[in-house]
Amino acid sequence: MPLAVCATPIGNLDDVTLRVLDELRAAELVLCEDTRRTRILLDRHGIEARLASYHRHNEAAREHEVLGRLERGERIALVSDAGLPGVNDPGARLIAAAVRAALPVTVLPGPSAVETALVASGLVGERYQFVGYLPRRGSERERLARELARWPHAIVAFESPPRLTASLAALSGAMPARPAAVCRELTKRFEEVVRGTLAELAVRYRHPPKGEITLVLGAAEPTRPDEAGAEALAAVAELVAAGVARKHAVELVARLTGASRNVLYTRSL
Mean pLDDT for each 10-residue chunk of the chain (269 residues)? Predict the structure, then answer.
């Protein structure tokens, strides 16, 4: 039997597929992050199943045992506390190990906080980038904010309530006018989607809220080539004035902005 990777609700317990419920009923073992949370889902749908914990702190120890059971043909389902295992949740290691061992793996899709927030934000476009949880450390947050400011398409991230204020401050510092949405408690009773620019949201959330949070940044406003060139030239001029050799200044700005090195060097003379 294949390892069945099962998506579970991100909030509302009724947001589970019929295939997942059938798989959980039939499984000889259900691996889950928190047996207490998974038991609530199973009880809601009248399912009795044998549960075993599988989380970041024991996945290495569990791997050999689970692979052995799969090789013997046991029916095993893998779930996370919410959403699809392996996407910012435990499971990726076990799935990769099963694939390496040539054991079958099947994925039963379902709820996703990423897609739900993206659609609810009203900022969905043709492309988006998912960056997982934002960094805990301030310097890493600032570095990522500068990197994301150069990404022209929509961005989706997870964040914990206590760190939301600091993260919005870092993001708004790098791109204050970028449209964004704070999606809180999606699919739950107190679901809330607050939209605005990053600067506006940073003011709105000066005090951390409660609940699960998914943050969406909309696509950046396209910059006209002449404007982009003017900004890049200004950056080169500032670096040269600060004592950086013109060649090095041009290389740095070109790498950060994508502008042509030759054009920048010629126009900066």
Answer: 96 97 98 96 96 93 95 97 91 96 97 96 92 94 92 95 96 94 96 96 95 95 60 86 87 79 76
- Asked whether 194 and 259 are in contact (CB, 8 A), the reply is no
* Angle, helices 59-71/92-100, rounded to nearest 10 degrees: 40
**How many of the other CB atoms lie within 10 Å of CB of 7?**
23
**DSSP string across 113-178:** HHHHHHHHHT---S-EEEEEEPPSSHHHHHHHHHHHHT--SEEEEEE-HHHHHHHHHHHHHH-TT-
Nearest to 136 by CA among 172, 173, 95, 164: 164
Q: Which amino acid is at 144?
A: L
CB-based contacts of 96, cutoff 8 Å, min separation 6:
none
CA–CA gap between residue 105 and residue 4 (Å, rounded) = 6
Whole-Å CA distances, 263 to 25, 161, 203, 233: 64, 45, 40, 10
Helix (H, G, I), strand (E, B) or coil at 28: coil
Q: Bridge-partner residues for 135, per DSSP?
A: none
| 51 φ, ψ (degrees, to nearest 5) | -110, 150
List alpha helices for the chain, DSSP H: 18-26, 35-44, 59-71, 92-100, 113-121, 138-149, 161-174, 198-204, 225-241, 246-257, 261-268
What's the chain's length in residues? 269
The packing angle between helices 261-268 and 225-241, to 10°, is 60
Q: Taken in order 72, 75, 80, 85, is the CA torsion positive or negative?
A: positive
How far, in whole angstroms, is CA 171 from its chain's centroid? 15
